[in-house]
What we know:
The protein is an alpha/beta fold. 39% of the residues lie in helices and 27% in strands. The chain has helices spanning 59-66, 83-90, 104-116, 149-158, 160-165, 177-186, 219-224, 226-230, 234-255, 261-282; strands spanning 7-12, 18-20, 27-30, 33-36, 42-47, 52-53, 57-58, 73-77, 96-101, 123-127, 141-147, 168-173, 189-199, 202-211. It has a 7-stranded mixed β-sheet with strand order 10-9-8-11-12-14-13, with helices on both faces. Strands 1, 2, 5, 6 and 7 form a 5-stranded antiparallel β-sheet that branches. The radius of gyration is 21 Å and the shape is elongated. The relative contact order is 0.09.
Amino acid sequence: MKWLHGILCFVLYDDFSTCPIGTHPLLKCVDGAVFLLKSARKVIIWNMSGREKLIALSVRMEAVAGLISASGVLADVGTDHGYIPIAMVQRKKVKKAIAMDLRVGPLDRAKKHIAEYGLEDWIETRLSDGVAALTPGEADSIVVAGMGGELVMHILSDGEAVCRSAKELILQPQSELAEVRRYLAEKGYRIRQEDMVLDDGKYYPMMRVIPEPAEELSEIEALYGPILLRERNPVLFAFLQKEERHFGEILANLKGQPASEKLEVRIGQLEHKIECNRLAQMRFV
Length: 285
């Protein structure tokens, strides 16, 4: 059993059984942080020194939290339940957090959870459209996770002064990954770290970026992530294999339909996607 700074970690499964981190291969600890190696339901952490149960994060949110490196002020955009700010303050990874959301309902839920854990002195809530309620330089880390890629780019564009003043941005767009990565390169954000996890049957790529000039990305890098490809991320490889099968099934269906000019265009587009997938998989050879 592995102890780190008085904290004992468990994996929580669907049947609510638990397994100590030191005896299970799904997790590893590095410098006090928990990293998920494979898909699990949730991570529950108990502070054994005070017998205090710390907040549980999903696999996706645990991975997002794992990308936060700055130890000052954290701002969580679209905080919803406020789980990431609560977890980061409880683990003493940040000194203060600001939980923000566009809607009153989610922000009220976040306030309730923050109060339940007694963290009102360390976590502030703000009603905010993107980062509008932040001032430049106020946050060291800004998390924008769990929303579409178009919205992520909109938040970065509308709040450019605030975003560029932060030490890092933790982004987890749910769609338009290639467009987001190209946008970052064009706007002078460098991807410094990437991760990808499988949570409840869905794949979630994410990245840590800093305001620094970046090199132009190739088409394959924009689609699948330059660092994920370079590090031969095993979750990405599993995704590529699944995507290849999916594309193959669609292509077979299209080729069985009556020929038309529109159909030929669709087949050409899909064949290009298949070729990009094949080139990405070659990075793992």
